[in-house]
Amino acid sequence: MPDAAELLSQIRISGAIPRHVAIIMDGNGRWARDRMLPRPLGHRHGMKSVRAVVEGAIEAGVEVLSLFAFSKENWQRPALEVSALMSLLEEFVQGEADELERQGVHVRFLGELERLAPAASAAVDRVVRQTAHCATLRLNLFVSYGSRAEILLAIRSLASDVAAGRLTPEQIDESAFTERLYTSDVPDPDLLIRTSGEQRISNFLLWQIAYTEFSITPVLWPDFGRKELYEAILDYQQRDRRFGRVPA
Ligand code: IPE
Ligand code: IPE
Ligand code: MG
Questions:
Q1: Structure pTM?
Q2: CA 35, CA 104: separation in Å to the nearest integer?
Q3: What percent of the chain stands above pLDDT 90?
Q4: Is 140 a catalytic residue?
Q5: Domains in the chain and their CATH numbers?
Q6: Looking at the chain, which runs of residues are DSSP E strands?
Q7: Exactly one of 34, 74, 140, 188 is catalytic; which is it?
């Protein structure tokens, strides 16, 4: 079995690196349950995987890494789990801010951030400001995010521009729409990875993944690391992306 370094050398000779990799980080609860641990411990171990994929993405030369950390629907989980997740978010951004800046990681948070508790929100603002000048990797952390809600926000913004006479209905095209999404300043994902074997999108980036390649792995998120990231990238490099055309 090749290790991460061998996989990275293979990636370097196997073709284009995906510019934008998105990950639905799933399976923390099952990882904890398998060890008879409380679910929050699964989330805590999942933070190690975040560190590993950030480093792995930087080394591979990925430009944008999008991580689905907490969905709008996840607010419906038991209050104890939600508060554990929020504390971990705060701890992660506080504990990692300096290292992320040193690595050149420009951190952004995407989602309904107004729902975050003041302490989490302040920590989020701080790391975003601290890393705003970084340009090695763009790290999008999706928190309190739901794709349908994002799409509705964009539609509402278009509708109010039309109502105010700033835009005609004919001017509503793909670019007018996408510039109103949270992801307006990044390319669509080339590769979407979902861990824990679930074969669904769970309301993540519905518009943006029109031509994204999928990689579903049974590995639970706390067990996912640089090696698993590189396996997914290598597999991606074997795909024939046709975008509806006939192969060259
Ligand atoms: C992913 O792990 C983390 C979040 C959704 C916040 P889960 O907590 O969904 O873990 P499973 O799916 O229950 O195993
Ligand atoms: C999707 O995982 C959301 C995140 C990974 C943050 P879920 O565990 O919430 O998704 P479902 O409930 O299995 O669809
Ligand atoms: Mg889950």
A1: 0.98
A2: 35
A3: 99
A4: no
A5: 19-237 (3.40.1180.10)
A6: 20-24, 64-71, 105-110, 137-145, 191-194, 213-216
A7: 74
